[in-house]
Design a protein that fits this description.
430 residues, alpha/beta, Immunoglobulin-like, Rossmann fold, 2 domains, 7-stranded mixed beta sheet, 25 strands, 21% helix
Length: 430
């Protein structure tokens, strides 16, 4: 009789994902469970596999209320991958089954599929209910078009409709395979976005020894040729090494109205920068002998970059006071890739010294290096392209996740506020 009753009760357990089991990657969902026993303790789990086949998972313990219900919007996790009230905790707290792996979905056509499940806390953890959340990277009606024009290799994302739309140039990484997530999600929010890399993609050179600003100038010119683009200038969205590239684009090239710099440097790093066949900035270099191994197997690299403020390195500083457009600087205070907060403070002081007010800045305590669109798995460590080893990125999962939510909204507000749209210009192109 007991076995029959227990089975009958578990068959009544229901796991719901609201408002829909299908949503954009950057949209929150409400996870609800019903049909449990009064005050029953259960484990809620999430599991997903990225493009490389790496499995990510999380688990949290919850106690049902008197009517046998759990709502992650209001109920706290008692233990597990996170604690406290965290409506999206099962997503951002997922960890890889292999150390030092970053969650990767680079192709925007591949959804992030997450399997949620409810399990008995006692015994073997029998599953009581499950549901699947399909988190898409590209919204309905958004057009994805590979670009291979002149020297440019990338992907263009265009929102549905004739426009006019503001234009954004997206530089996620400097080289290698394109990562389309940020670009496709921004296009889903009403921006024409061109995502590019400088090398290592398609038929581009596998490696480069110098960087040419002319390549990015060509991208800006191409952006204005797209008929749906109605902005008078272009926005630039970057992170890490591409942050200093964006500073140079904004400082040396015209028509850049708004630049988002996330966890970058204030100096030109790693590769000398050329424009019209002349070097305009030398490279601030690294001393990899300063890498510190840790017990986790990942390395600490925060101090390997030479000090950009040292007298002998000041020639590498990007002259951002020349920029005509606006800046949004975002720094994670626990970034272990390099001293992001110090670099941001230096840029703020430099602009103030020159009487400039064309910037805003935000910093995030407890956040690490990879600030991305929200609700993806937090990455504490992974392979570093320059160090050629696993490194620590810093931050704590909970604080980092909150920073991503705030910053992603702020980026969109910043671009909408500062990318002026000219409807007449778009009509003329069409």
């Amino acid at each position: 009789i007991y076995a029959f009753t227990k089975q009958r009760m578990s068959s009544q357990v229901r796991l719901r994902l609201l408002p829909s089991a299908r949503c954009l990657f950057d949209e929150p969902i409400q996870v609800k469970v019903s049909g449990l026993r009064s005050r029953q303790v259960v484990a809620l789990r999430a599991r997903s596999t990225d493009e490389r086949g790496v499995v990510f998972s999380s688990s949290a313990t919850y106690r049902a209320d008197g009517s046998g219900k759990i709502d992650l919007v209001s109920d706290p996790s008692l233990s597990g991958s996170y604690v406290g009230v965290e409506p999206m905790g099962l997503l951002w707290s997922m960890r890889p089954d292999t150390l030092h792996k970053k969650f990767q979905i680079k192709n925007s056509l591949n959804p992030h599929v997450v399997r949620f499940s409810v399990h008995e806390e006692e015994g073997e953890g029998r599953m009581l209910a499950e549901a699947t959340n399909e988190r898409i990277l590209i919204g309905d009606g958004v057009i994805r078009r590979p670009v291979k024009e002149g020297n440019i290799r990338g992907v263009l994302f265009t929102p549905p409709g004739r426009g006019p739309f503001p234009a954004v140039l997206e530089l996620y990484i400097l080289g290698g395979a394109l990562s389309e997530k940020r670009a496709s999600l921004l296009a889903s929010r009403g921006f024409v976005v061109l995502s590019v890399v400088a090398y290592g993609h398609d038929d581009m050179p596998r490696n480069i020894k110098e960087l040419h600003l002319d390549y990015f100038e060509e991208q800006l010119m191409l952006h204005f040729s797209f008929p749906q683009v109605g902005s008078k200038g272009v926005g630039v969205l970057t992170i890490s090494k591409t942050g200093d590239v964006a500073l140079s684009i904004a400082s040396y090239l015209p028509d850049v109205e708004a630049t988002v710099w996330i966890n970058g440097c204030c100096a030109n790093t790693a590769l000398p920068l050329y424009y019209k066949k002349s070097q305009i900035l030398p490279a601030l270099m690294f001393d990899l002998s300063k890498m510190i191994p840790t017990e986790s197997g990942a390395n600490m690299v925060k101090n390997v970059l030479h000090n950009p403020l040292a007298e002998e390195n000041k020639a590498t500083l990007v002259p951002i006071e020349q920029a005509k457009g606006r800046f949004l600087f975002a720094a994670a205070e626990d970034d272990l890739n390099w001293d992001t907060k110090a670099y941001m403070d230096e840029m703020v002081e430099r602009l103030k010294h020159h009487g400039k007010e064309n910037f805003e800045s935000v910093s995030y305590p407890g956040a690490g290096h990879y600030l991305e669109p929200p609700y993806g798995p937090y990455c504490p460590s992974s392979f570093h392209w320059l160090a050629c080893k696993a490194v620590l990125w810093g931050g704590g999962a909970q604080s980092h996740a909150a920073a991503e939510v705030h910053l992603w909204k702020k980026i969109q507000e910043f671009f909408r506020a500062h990318l002026s749209v000219d409807a007449a210009q778009t009509i003329a192109k069409l």
